[in-house]
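Weekly modeling sync, notes
Attendees: AB, CL, MP (scribe)

Item 1: holo prediction request
CL wants a bound-state model with fe (ii) ion before deciding which constructs to order. AB pointed out that an apo prediction alone won't tell us much about the pocket. Agreed to run with the ligand included and paste results into these notes for async review.

Input as submitted:
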Amino acid sequence: MSLDIPVQTDRQLGLDEFQELFRDGKYDARDSESLKDAAEILLALGNNKSFLPDLIMKELTDDMSGQRDNFYGPSVIKLGHPTDSTVMRANIWASATDEDYRRSPNAFIYGVPHDHNFNFLTVGYWGPGYKSRYYEFDYENVEGYTGEEVRIREVAFKSLGLDSVMLYRAHVDIHSQLPPDKLSITLNVMESGPEHHYKDQYMFDGEGGSVAVVLSSRCSPNLFEVAASFGDAEIQEALVFISKRHQSEYTRACALRSALRGAADEDEVERLVAYGMNSNCGGLRQAVHRFLAH
Ligand SMILES: [Fe+2]
């Protein structure tokens, strides 16, 4: 399961102090083992129950200037970048009776098993904490297309309690969260580099037996669709190239789907259909099936 980190300290750190120690300690959020070693200083930041109210107060009186590059949505307060490959945020977890949750339940992905395409270390900062059902899976065995059957193993059911620290490993740990009994806040230190945009993240169906949604922060699938609509031969060639060579099978399948729609004639459609159907990538075969079904 996501790793409980058995760490204790009475020390308290401010946010700037934490970020300086994170840099000085050369912790690397891209490496889960290295990130785990930052557990004690994260707990020390979590012990400081005044830094976040102070930061919120400052934001409220300063036109939210520190949140202008916060693209995570209203349940997140961005806490800055300790390094180029790390971002920090405070996550707000509404309870089922909170106004926030009742007004926009879809803003919280409760009850949906999902993995993460980034490592993150988290500490329960405020409130009783959310509960999760935890699973593990073999990311390398997943091609990554909607409906694909995936074997996931349930390993635990627990709360992320106040002042407890956990490590979520990219592409290993899955959790399905339940709302906390009372509004809760966690502090997260997360991997954040350009490379993680090329790694897929999955939402699984309610039982966790198949991929329900491939989450992607990439703009490429939308761009492929627009590009294919131009009917330009060079663009078409590029889409076919991507469908054959891209490192992400999800991206390859999206490129093939668009290339099929943008094909100049029946001969090209036939060639692309044959390529997709003979591929050992399930996502490509599915892209062909979906194209032929329409
Ligand atoms: Fe999550």
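Recorded for review: DSSP finds ten helices and eleven strands in the chain.
Action items: CL to compare against the apo run; MP to circulate these notes.
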